[in-house]
Specification:
The protein is mainly α. It has 26 helices and 14 strands. 49% of the residues are buried.
């Protein structure tokens, strides 16, 4: 029987194959006349599909890798927003008439609303799609005659692939790996992909592969980053080392690796520090464009946006950013930045902060903790107070709050849309920082503390404390150390994963701080003040270590829904 006859006789299998690959984010793949699956880029307007084995081809395909990566952080709810919603410091807000998907993440309670069995499908799909694009670059690099050029692209792609696998593990726990030869350009049959995805998920094997790839990458990638304005490229040794440190921290927090992982974190963070490529900038606010905008307004400036941002994160001035993702580069990602818009004020722009969905509000309990030390220079950058900034006096405020769910009147201040002094919105998408130099000191300090060297941990953070306007401290507790780290990284995606590490060090249940920052909190609901915050249930939080794997993915794979699903995410039959 030839292939065409076979496929015609097995149309059901072919149909499943189409849906299966779509679930892996090869969503725009085209079904050919023979029933096989062809690559996404063949059928997309404006994309160039390089087939020649050249450096030009690798460079263009690496641009595709970063474009896909930006979708993984941007589309759906997005990696940053999910991390923020999981964080104890923020509540899922948004509009009273919006869907309740954000509250599912915030409360880790699937019963808040129905029909959300595929809530995280965009994140699952897009990270796997980026992995396939990385595999394509890796495969093509083997055909390049110049070994240095080949290795440079191979291990830049493997660094991004490692980031994607780590993010999938952070969100979903043990996940299946795709074979290296599955790269999104070949023809696949249903059985071929299904056999890969049905392999037993082994987090230790996944972590072993990522460590091996990143270890080789740090020896092959250039010692220095290209320049600050190109740091969305993962093409330096320090980026691989920062990712290795974070990987070891995460793997230890999940008990995938033993205590020797802590030594590796110290080793790699020390290597980044010794590189001399980065520095702790003296002005904390200068790291975020939105803080620059608010400062300009507070100082009575009426400058244009271009003038306001003059020198912000340009050239080599941002020497604290190790790795960031660019969303507003038209060549890499012409789409708007959805997660960034989610951070804006609901139905209004005001004094440098632009309008958006009002997705997050800050716990007033955390606000009081942050305010307890008036000398802490990080507060004004991190938190926007509606009353203190006179936002509540604006004529738009009474209208805005009528459609604001669980509004505490405190908002995250680092990543928000911009507007000019007169309230005119400015269409400017900020880069998102995966790692900044401060993270290196934080990861080292955390691991020293976990090893019992609390004095060394506090000493490691002295530069950060000095920038914050705080005096040095040599003796303290792990809780005091975490409190400082919590304020340093508040409303950045890494904050939540540092919280998970802290819970591991202290042996605390997952819900400890989440309940702490939500207990007895009063909010404004649709303009009505002093409403009790919707309760957080410890049993829901403690029963869920990871997010819900999309149901459609598992059904299309032909695997058992309840066997594969993470604990706590299978609905009862009632």
């Amino acid at each position: 029987m030839n292939i065409v006859s076979w496929l015609n006789a097995h149309k059901k299998i072919v149909a499943i194959a189409i849906s299966l690959v779509a679930s892996l984010s090869i969503m725009a793949f085209a079904l050919s006349q023979t029933g096989t699956l062809k690559a996404w880029a063949d059928n997309q307007e404006g994309n160039v599909w390089y087939t020649n084995n050249s450096e030009e081809a690798l460079e263009e395909d690496m641009k595709e890798v970063y474009r896909y990566l930006s979708h993984a952080y941007n589309d759906g709810i997005g990696m940053h927003m999910i991390s923020e919603l999981l964080d104890p410091l923020t509540f899922a807000s948004g509009g009273t008439t919006d869907g309740k998907q954000a509250r599912i993440i915030d409360r880790l309670d699937l019963n808040i609303t129905d029909n959300n069995k595929n809530l995280f499908e965009p994140e699952w799909n897009n990270f796997y799609a980026t992995i396939l694009k990385c595999n394509k670059v890796i495969t093509e690099s083997y055909s390049i005659e110049d070994p240095e050029i080949a290795a440079k692209y191979e291990y830049e792609a493997k660094t991004i692939r490692s980031l994607c696998y780590l993010n999938l593990m952070k969100l979903f726990g043990p996940i299946p790996m795709l074979r290296d030869d599955l790269d999104g350009t070949q023809f696949y049959q249903y059985e071929e992909i299904c056999s890969v995805m049905q392999e037993k998920r082994n987090p230790e094997e996944t972590i072993k592969m990522l460590i091996e790839d990143l270890e080789k990458a740090r020896g092959i990638l250039p010692p220095q980053k290209i320049s600050a304005h190109n740091n969305h490229r993962a093409s330096s040794r320090c980026i691989a080392e920062a990712l290795l440190a974070h990987l070891y921290m995460y793997a230890w927090s999940q008990s995938y690796l033993d205590n020797s992982a802590l030594d590796h974190v110290v080793k790699y963070t020390d290597s980044v520090i010794a590189s001399g490529d980065y520095e702790i900038l003296p002005d904390y606010a200068s790291l975020w464009a939105s803080a620059c905008a608010r400062n300009n307004v507070e100082q009575g400036g009426g400058r244009t946006l271009d003038s306001l941002l003059d020198g912000y994160l340009t050239g080599d001035k941002d020497r604290e950013t190790i790795f960031s993702i660019t969303f507003n580069d038209k060549e890499l990602n012409p789409e708007s930045c959805k997660w960034y818009q989610n951070m804006g004020l609901r139905n209004m722009s005001y004094r440098g902060t632009g309008e958006g969905q009002g997705m997050l509000n800050v716990s007033p309990i955390f606000v009081k903790e942050f305010q307890s030390d008036s000398s802490d220079a990080r507060y004004a950058t991190s938190i926007i107070e509606a009353e203190k900034s006179h936002m509540t006096e604006d004529e738009k405020w009474p209208i805005a709050i009528l459609d604001w769910h669980e509004c505490t009147e405190f908002f995250p201040g680092k990543y928000t849309p911009l507007c000019l002094a007169d309230g005119t919105p400015a269409n400017y998408s900020q880069d998102y920082k995966i790692f900044r130099y401060a993270d290196i000191f934080i990861m080292k300090a955390f691991c020293l503390a976990a090893k019992g060297d609390i004095q060394g941990a506090f000493y490691t953070l002295e530069k950060l404390r000095a920038r914050a306007g705080l005096s040095p401290i040599s003796v303290g507790t792990i809780e005091e150390l975490y409190s400082f780290i919590q304020k340093e990284t508040a409303f950045e995606a890494n904050s939540y994963w540092y919280y998970i590490f802290f819970c591991k060090v202290n042996g605390w249940p997952h819900s400890e701080y989440i309940i702490k920052y939500s207990k007895d909190v009063k909010v404004m609901e649709a303009g009505t003040p002093d409403v009790n915050l919707e309760a957080y249930k410890p049993e829901n939080i403690n029963n869920k270590s990871f997010l819900q794997i999309p149901q459609d993915t598992m059904l299309l794979l032909g695997v058992d829904w309840q066997y594969w699903q993470n604990p706590g995410w299978v609905e009862s039959e009632d």
